[in-house]
Amino acid sequence: xxxxxxxxxxxxxxxxxxxxxxxxxxxxxxxxxxxxxxxxxxxxxxxxxxxxxxxxxxxxxxxxxxxxxxxxxxxxxxxxxxxxxxxxxxxxxxxxxxxxxxxxxxxxxxxxxxxxxxxxxxxxxxxxxxxxxxxxxxxxxxxxxxxxxxxxxxxxxxxxxxxxxxxxxxxxxxxxxxxxxxxxxxxxxxxxxxxxxxxxxxxxxxxxxxxxxxxxxxxxxxxxxxxxxxxxxxxxxxxxxxxxxxxxxxxxxxxxxxxxxxxxxxxxxxxxxxxxxxxxxxxxxxxxxxxxxxxxxxxxxxxxxxxxxxxxxxxxxxxxxxxxxxxxxxxxxxxxxxxxxxxxxxxxxxxxxxxxxxxxxxxxxxxxxxxxxxxxxxxxxxxxxxx
Amino acid sequence: xxxxxxxxxxxxxxxxxxxxxxxxxxxxxxxxxxxxxxxxxxxxxxxxxxxxxxxxxxxxxxxxxxxxxxxxxxxxxxxxxx
Lengths: 387, 82
Fold this sequence. Notes:
The complex is a heterodimer of chains A (387) and B (82). By secondary structure, chain A is mostly beta strands. Chain A has one helix and 28 strands. In chain A, a hairpin with a 3-residue loop joins β23 and β24 (325-330). Chain A starts with a helix and ends with a strand. Chain B contains two helices and six strands. Chain B is globular, with a radius of gyration of 12 Å. With 82 residues, chain B is an alpha+beta fold. Chain B has helices spanning 34-38, 59-64; strands spanning 5-7, 12-14, 19-23, 29-32, 43-45, 52-56. Chain A binds chain B through residues 19, 21-22, 24, 56-57, 73, 109, 128-130, 137, 161, 181, 183, 193, 195-196, 198, 262, 281-284, 286, 322-324, 340, 342-343, 377-380, and chain B through 1-4, 10, 12, 23-28, 48-51, 72-76, 78-80.
């Protein structure tokens, strides 16, 4: 078994599809792809990728050895190359982080963040809302250490459209911080309306909760506690007010992963079931009226939370959300997508919207892979096999 | 159907495009020019897709201060709209 591992690692397969006019698909082309594109052929030298972070139109890849590569739109410095590039068509190493072992990456609309194994946080890209956390509103094209956390151990970072969240590793008090735009309450630092802050500020309302995962996208923020509770704050989902502090979803379900779009959220339970908050967005999906005609009266405790239709009896292993589309992977390695499809981000060979999950044909049998992980940028999608 | 309603103070002035912009979920930018705003236009379109947003602004601000676009959001005074 040991000998096989190296070989399997070399055979990692990466597919991308959707909006591609900034080079974000890594296909060396500047156009949309409506079907999954296998990147292995284009990138024979791509090292083994352990995770991806996809932003507005750029991608940050974390390699198995803790190095960082990036591609796509770079006009705000979000690729971290040390210079502004309009777009990078293929993966390039972020050399300024070579001295560090990076363990976690995140990509916002036009900024990026990196966490090292020593707990240091680095940010680059657009800083005009304070989302880089350096105490100013400057943009940076080289990852710059956030000195605020110099004496603390950062574990995770999550970048939204114009804000950032940070989770400290220590499961003690004061563990989640926010900075950047706070107009919709997405920083969770104050009940008052905050335009923006450029230095990390501790969030209120999660002091007594041990957090396992944080998420940010659009003007939304979320955190998942170690005991499976989902907290959301920021812009209100369909029909709900903005929340300036974390609200615990009143549910008996135990969640193990949560991802955010610009108007919806997905949450994966311990049992492999997928729930959606916010639902399909009316500005994007034209046939919303036809959705769920015989909708059940919602349980008041779980109002606004719907089980994703069409996945009955199917165990889900991973979830991802773009701005207006959703992706899940079944335990058999099948990728399913739904939501907005105008740029081919559903990978179904067309530009149609889908109101429930449809299987993507990745043209190769995925069953042999130990697992498949999916990642979404605003209007594009990546799937990769994990050894 | 409008994708979203966005206040002008949340849009960013883009020198290159000579337009106010706001992120579009497709990855491109919704755009509207000062000339459009002066004409009372309130729809900002994305050049890459079918989506558009409704811009919330005060027409008078653009009729009287034509050479003085609102500052970048980060430099603006915090505004509280009742």
